[in-house]
TrEMBL record:
Species the sequence originates in: Virgisporangium aurantiacum
HTH lysR-type domain: residues covered: 1-58
Entry GO CC: protein-DNA complex
Protein name: LysR family transcriptional regulator
Tree of life domain: Bacteria
Keywords, comma-separated and alphabetical: DNA-binding, Transcription, Transcription regulation
Family statement: Belongs to the LysR transcriptional regulatory family.
Pfam family, any one: LysR_substrate
GO MF entries: DNA binding; DNA-binding transcription factor activity
Amino acid sequence: MQVEDLRRLIALAGHERVTDAAAVLRLTQPTLSRLLARVEHELGGRLFERDARGVHLNPNGALALAAARDIVDRYDRLRRDLADVLDPDSGTVRLAFLNSMATSLVPRLLREFRVASPHVRVTLRQAPTHDLLRLLADGTAEHAVLWPRPTGPHGWIPLQRQRLVLAVAPGHRLERRKRVRMAELADDDLVTVPTGFGFRTLVDDLYAADGLVPRVSFESEDLATVEGLAGAGLGVAILPDQQAGTSTVAVPLASAAAQRVVGLTWRSDRDLAPPAARFLDHVRAAGPYG
């Protein structure tokens, strides 16, 4: 049974004559009669009683009519709500991003998009990379700002190349150095994110390239917290340069691998809703963000 069948059932109940209802619905009388017979068969009982004056709802029909009105009303409301959400000029974009992008790249991205599309709403989610990919897969998010570039059916626009730096507390022996080699950190405690995070893998790889294993003192999922702990002298930290310098001193690393490229990704195996497509067009036109 389709929603239009329920609309016709409602019309028939309102007119009580098949001929009149058929005229309003622009159907032939036999077509409407067959539709009624099909609906009654599907629901398992008679809904109307026929007599010389036309058709009249019986108790089963009254129950079906109330349900039909509720279903049609909910369906129409759904269509209106979806139309609002999907309107490219005033709909909604679902954007997810790495926690470390919350105070730097994402605000700049959204500020410029708001200027270009002031009536489009953007809902936000923060998560680590593995959760961002899950949010994209199940449709909770339409776009994600993350690192590294995902494999599989994902589009990709590089947004920002981030240089990784050593973040040390003021007064640390390395704070005035122009460049630091990873080997020089062998005796320092490290504050970093937990194992399993993409950024932790990058940090571990930097140590491993010099034959080192980091001596981790504290772990936090939030890079701002990592920076604060390092600034309190509880260990050094390796951070994107945008995340260092609040309570720490940022010192460049000598390793060429001390960088990451953050980008915007989306599922390329499905169509984007109009507002999300508009957001993508904006990002493409805006180009890299430093």
